[in-house]
Specification:
- By secondary structure, this protein is mainly β.
- It has one domain.
- The chain has 1 helix and 4 strands.
- Strands 1-2-4-3 form a 4-stranded antiparallel beta sheet, with helices on one face.
- The chain is elongated.
- It starts with a helix and ends in a 5-residue tail after the last strand.
């Protein structure tokens, strides 16, 4: 189920502009009912502002926002901006 949710998210997160990059990674692909998965969504762009990712509906999981880290650099007049959004996913039911 986590794999399908990640695939759906990445499909929805297709870059609107060439300089925008979105990636997602989970710390595990299989999870038990009383376990959790850490999902990290990374957004990078050559601009000062970044869009915040919108997660798809995941009715089989409780989704908790665990924070954001952001870094901006400027080199030779070019801005590079990256942000990592961390989410905790906890399954609500047994699935496959």
């Amino acid at each position: 189920m986590v794999t399908r949710a990640l695939a759906a998210f990445l499909a929805l997160a297709a870059p609107a502009r060439a300089e925008l990059s979105v990636t997602a990674a989970a710390n595990k692909l299989t999870v038990g009912l009383n376990e959790q998965v850490v999902l990290t969504v990374s957004v990078a762009a050559d601009s000062a502002s970044l869009p915040e990712p919108e997660l798809p509906s995941m009715p089989r999981f409780n989704v908790h926002n665990a924070g954001k880290s952001q870094a901006m650099t400027m080199m030779n007049g070019r801005i590079s901006n990256t942000a990592d959004y961390t989410y905790i996913l906890v399954p609500r039911m047994v699935g496959n």
